[in-house]
Amino acid sequence: MAILIDETKCNGCGLCDHNCPGDIIHMDAVSGKPLVVYPDECWYCGACRIDCPENCIKIIFPLISL
Amino acid sequence: MSFNLANIPEHHITTDVLVIGGGSAGTMAALAARRQGLEVALVDKAGIDRSGCGCAGNDHFLAILESGPEWDTKEAFLKWYHRLTQGLVDMAIPEKVFLSRIKRMVAYLEELGIPMRLDATHNDYIRTGSFGQPGDYFINFDGRKLKPTVSAEAARAGVKFFRRINITDLLADGGRVTGAVGFDIRKGDFYTFLARATIVATGNVTRLYNNQASMPYNSWHSPYNNGGAQAMAFRAGAELKNMEFVNYTLTPVNFSASALNAIVGMGGYIVNGLGERFLFKYHEKGEKGPRWVMPWGVYWEIKEGRGPCYFDLRHLPEEAINHLLHHLLPVDKNTFLDYCEQKGVDLRKDLLEVQISEGQLPAFLGSVSGIYVTPECATTVSGLFATGACSVTVGSLSGSMCVGETAGEEAAKFIYRDKTVKPEVPKEELTARREAIYSPLKRQGGFKHCELENKLRQVMTLYVGIGRTRRGMLTALEELAKLEKLFPDVRADNLHELMRVHELRDMLLVAQLIARGALEREESRFGLSHYRGDFPTSREEWHCSLHQCLQGEQVVLKRVAPSNL
Ligand SMILES: Cc1cc2nc3c(=O)[nH]c(=O)nc-3n(C[C@H](O)[C@H](O)[C@H](O)COP(=O)(O)OP(=O)(O)OC[C@H]3O[C@@H](n4cnc5c(N)ncnc54)[C@H](O)[C@@H]3O)c2cc1C
Ligand code: SF4
Ligand code: SF4
């Protein structure tokens, strides 16, 4: 899962997609909302969350890394 | 996939300076070259505003401020740096690329509004020391806005940004590097950059070794730095240096995050399963010793049955633990406290178990491995400069920014010295490069990139990881050669995967350079970094650097005498 986006709060600005250093998040052309396309390649860096204007991204660590 | 292979749009950009990699070093390099009045293209496979190891912020800014004490002088720094790198970094470099610039760099960041003075009461710096430093070299600062701020400065100065372009190869004309090619990882377009000077700055090399959680992207430094600069420079004929020294650190268990500097800098302890502080057995400075001492000590404690090992912060005074929890840890790794919370660890009361991280080619202070450069950041190939963590200079964040600035200025000087040069590239070379870039998209069947990448990590971890022997290295080279043979069968099903395939190509080359260097260097040095069980001590005859370069198809190795102060 890696990161969880609260779609009810998300305004579709695309900053998380722009900021992710690993091309993990892609804005969905249809819904206009971010999709976590490559969760297995997430670095857990938090760059997507840091500038999110709606503060709607949560970092979820998988069990194996806890 | 919407993108049509038969009709790939092409973009041809001609510029004065091309900077490949828009992280801490590359962005400064671009800005510095632009300040010299040149056209600059800054290219990154990510978005630049927040890419690279500093994407979500760093918290320690190494600086010599000449504030009074003996340790805060250039002389003391040089002595320490020479000791730390054991003479394997050219000692003419730190003065030129770092010491002469660092005070101005700190002032510049303050002008940009980066919070450098965390001591609000006295409007002063808070500084801490670690890793064997003779004093408190690290300014503790809030670097969360550093990367976007400096990127905005570069954009304002007129640097042209090319985002999401994965660069795959340098271009050369008559022995001189004249630019690079790459592709847009979202649209697929083909890009050619022709430049009078090219600077590579793609950082360190990760994803080469397994970690405990078996999550290759859960790495200490950015998992999206894969040796692009080192591999491209090597293929173009540049010399690489001391590639055998792979580095380890201590991280929280199963979470390869930076934290060690903050923790030992604030006086945290490292204890074993018996509750003992044990590092003094391995180094007289204990937790204040060089970084390599800590994974080295933990390795032996666990091996001898005294594991697991832990960070212990319970003794820290309230002020120190508050500083760690509020200013350092959540900046050092933005998600650190999320991890603690989800794991159920309260650092005021609980021990935090540690692990030895996966190995990586270094990116920090005291790095002796990477692209060999002169104090002017020039590689051994004309027209090609290297800067930041991929080069052997002064690592770390502040080091990378200062070295970046140096590379930008020196590339400009190089251009102004010879104004007549027009960068060119034969048409056939471009056609061949283009063909090679996209060929994984045309394959059916074959392997996925992760299949080869997993095998690569297995081989590196088994034979070229912690504890090495001649036989292991020969096995690794054989296995890596097999993977090299399989590489032309690797397919990509979309553009994102195409980027990963090109990363794999560079990692495969770097892995072979590491194994070859490690086979050659018959001694041990820097703890786990290069521990040859068949030559377990450091040896006088190996007190030197080992350079590797390509001549034709042949890899040539040479020993270079250590540098004296
Ligand atoms: C979490 C963390 C905390 C840290 N904290 C500190 C600290 O407090 N103090 C300190 O001194 N150091 C710290 N460091 C280290 C410091 O961040 C690095 O030393 C520094 O950022 C290196 O700069 P660089 O420009 O060489 O590489 P990076 O900043 O990593 O930039 C490399 C860039 O190259 C791009 N790239 C890679 N391959 C390609 C390609 N093929 N084509 C195009 N672009 C490419 C990447 O996308 C990236 O943007 C930390 C590192 C991490 C990961
Ligand atoms: S940054 Fe936040 S608000 Fe903007 S698209 Fe991403 S999740 Fe939505
Ligand atoms: S945590 Fe980092 S790597 Fe993961 S999605 Fe967010 S920005 Fe991308």
Can I get a quick summary?
The complex is a heterodimer of chains A (66) and B (565). Chain A is built from two helices and four strands; from the N terminus they run βαββαβ.
What does the model show?
- The complex is a heterodimer of chains A (66) and B (565).
- With 66 residues, chain A is α+β, with helices and mostly antiparallel strands.
- Helices cover 14% and strands 18% of the residues of chain A.
- In chain A, strand 2 (25-27) and strand 3 form a beta hairpin.
- The longest helix of chain A has 5 residues, at 15-19.
- Among the domains of chain B are: 250-357, Flavocytochrome C3, Chain A, domain 1, CATH 3.90.700.10; 434-541, Methane Monooxygenase Hydroxylase, Chain G, domain 1 (Up-down Bundle).
- Helix content of chain B is 35%, strand content 17%.
- Chain B contains 15 helices and 20 strands.
- In chain B, the strands form five sheets. In chain B, strands 1, 2, 6, 7, 8, 9 and 16 form a seven-stranded mixed sheet that branches. Chain B has a four-stranded antiparallel sheet with strand order 15-10-19-20, with helices on one face.
- In chain B, helix 1 links the parallel strand 1 (10-20) and strand 2.
- In chain B, helix 12 packs across helix 15 (495-520) and helix 14 runs antiparallel to helix 15.
- The longest helix of chain B has 26 residues, at 495-520.
- The A-B interface holds A 18-23, 37-38, 40-47, 49-51, 59-62, 64-66 and B 45-47, 49-52, 55-57, 144, 148, 164, 185, 213-215, 217-219, 222-224, 254-255, 257, 333-335, 338-339, 342-343, 496, 499.
- Bound molecules: flavin-adenine dinucleotide and iron/sulfur cluster (2 copies).
- Chain A: GO terms for molecular function: 4 iron, 4 sulfur cluster binding; metal ion binding.
- Chain A: It holds the Pfam family Fer4_10.
- Chain A: Keywords: 4Fe-4S, Iron, Iron-sulfur, Metal-binding.
